[in-house]
Amino acid sequence: MIAGNISLGICIAVGGAALIGGSTLSYYLWQVMLRSKRKKIISEAESEAEVIKKEKILQAKERFLQLKAEHEKVINEKNNRINQAEGRIKQKEQALSQKLEETQRRKNEADIIKESLTQQVEVIERKSEELSKLHRQQVEQLEAISGLSADEARNQLMESLKEEARTGAMSYINEILDEAKLTATKEAKRIVVMAIQRVAAETAIENAVTVFHIESDEIKGRIIGREGRNIRALEAATGIEIIVDDTPEAIVLSGFDPVRREIARLALHQLVTDGRIHPARIEEIVEKTRKQVEEEIVEIGKRTTIDLGIHGLHPELIRMVGKMKYRSSYGQNLLQHSREVANLCSIMAAELGLNPKIAKRAGLLHDIGKVPDDEPELPHAVLGMKLAEKYKEKPEVINAIGSHHDEAEMTTLIAPIVQVCDAISGARPGARREVIESYIKRLNELESLALSYPGVTKTYAIQAGRELRVIVGAEKVSDKDTENLSFEIAQKIQNEMTYPGQIKITVIRETRAVNYAK
Asked: What residues have CB less than 8 Å from 34, skipping those under 6 apart?
């Protein structure tokens, strides 16, 4: 506003000067008007400045009052906190005063009790001295009457009591030993007979073949294939000898390994059902069936543990338990044998007052060393003990597994129970056959010997061990090397193994190219 008035005055002055031209009178009049206008503008500016000054002073006072109120609020809050702290301190002081008073009261009571006990102790000591004096007088009188001192009389009495006690104890011990011998022999026989009677056992039979039934003999030709390609592919994939003869509506699968025979049987069933039988399809179905059998092994292990009421087994131990179904021990099915031993152990442990669950667990796992994946050169009891340690089994179970053939020292009462039950299950008439076990062992050694050569991928002993088929990788072994390999394997078998008749070694090298049209 002030700037606008000044601009207006300047314009008026300039305009007046221009109008009057050189007139002096008019110039002075304009000068007067300009002065009055200037004074008016200055006065208005001073008024506005005074108003602004008052407004600023009021604003400063308001800000001061606001800060003062906030400061007082903070001070009041601090005072409240101080008052609260003082109140808490006073409460603590009161509580401490009460505790001090209570402590002082108890101390006074303790002093009173102590004084009373001191008086009682003094009375007792006086009476004890009087009793000692009377006892000495009586001892002196007895010594005078008997003619012996107190020490001599005491020694004579002790010697007579010792001799009498020794004689009575020896007689009692002899009676207990005689009774224990008679009772222990009778009780042991009773427990063993009772345990055998309560377990239903099966008779082992030698079985190295599986008969696969077909609807008609026309399927035999499709299984053989053109120039025998299908049957050769099936034998190479499964390691089982396929015998197709004149037996009506039946094909014989021959092999010492029950797992291989089961894979071959299931694969053959799927191929016959599907109808598409050719080498590539055969390998696909065999691989798929092998995975199904592995899953079935795990399922068998789970069902076995559930049936026996055994819980908390490691998944790998469960898989090994299921794998027992496809293994035999001297012709006796290993899973049935282990279940039988587990039940026997549970019965005996219960009769002897031990833990039947731990005994059953040890009985089931005692032959777990017969079904490892790598089969190292260790006794199966020692290997089973190491597997049990690896999978965190209880010490009683580990010791029972390792000592059931005396490879380790027995440290628990469960161990001899497992050993006895294993003998009961395996030594009864019809339980085992030595021939099949030695036969299977010889075929396993035959396959392992050929598999030790570089470039060999698979080995199968077929025709009851009279032929060994060795499959080599085409990228590692040449056609010329196959002849040398066959000769070397034959020489090594001849030098290191004992076998009836002769063994035919067939080395198979196959080159296959596979592509896909998309």
From this structure: 9, 12, 13
Characterize the bridge pairing of strands 504-509 and 209-213: unpaired
Q: Which residues fall within 8 angstroms of residue 372, CB to CB, at 6 or more apart?
A: 320, 383, 387
Q: Which two tokens stand for residue 37?
A: 């206008």
Which one-letter DSSP state was computed for residue 299? H
For residue range 243-264, list pLDDT tens digits in order: 887 777 788 888 777 788 888 8
Q: What are 266-289's pLDDT values in tens digits?
A: 888 888 888 888 888 888 888 999
- Pairing state between β 241-243 and 250-254: antiparallel
Phi, psi angles (nearest 5°) of residue 408? -130, 160
Q: Is 271 exposed, middle or buried (0-12, 13-18, 19+ CB in 10 A)?
A: buried
Amino acid present at 315: P
Rounded to the nearest integer, the mean pLDDT of the chain is 81
Angstrom CA distances, 311 to 82, 170, 315, 348, 393, stand at 65, 49, 11, 20, 12
Look-up of token digits 């490691």 = 314
Contact 373, 388 (CB under 8 A): no
**What is residue 246's predicted lDDT score, i.e. its pLDDT?**
75
Q: At residue 428, does pLDDT exceed 60?
A: no
Residue 304 to residue 340: CA distance in whole angstroms? 12
Determine what percent of the chain is predicted with pLDDT higher than 90: 14
Model confidence at 21: pLDDT above 50: no
Neighbours of 263 (CB within 10 A): 27
Transcribe 431-471 into DSSP letters.
Answer: S--HHHHHHHHHHHHHHHHHHTSTTEEEEEEETTTTEEEEE
d(CA 277, CA 255) in angstroms, rounded, equals 22
- For residues 432 and 421, what is the distance between their CA atoms, to the nearest angstrom? 15
Extract the tokens encoding 104: 């002082």
Q: Note the pLDDT of residue 431.
A: 45
Residues in contact with 17: Cβ distance below 8 Å, sequence separation at least 6, in sequence order:
27, 30
For residue 348, what are the contacts with CB-CB under 8 A and spacing of at least 6?
Answer: 191, 192, 195, 359, 417, 420, 421
Report how far residue 407's alpha carbon sits from residue 419's, in angstroms, rounded to the nearest whole number: 12
Q: Are 437 and 207 in contact (CB under 8 A)?
A: no
Residues 6+ apart with CB under 8 A from 388: 317, 365, 368, 397, 398, 401, 402
- Residue 192: the pLDDT is 66
**13 pLDDT more than 50:** no
**Residue 474 pLDDT level (bands cut at 50, 70, 90):** confident
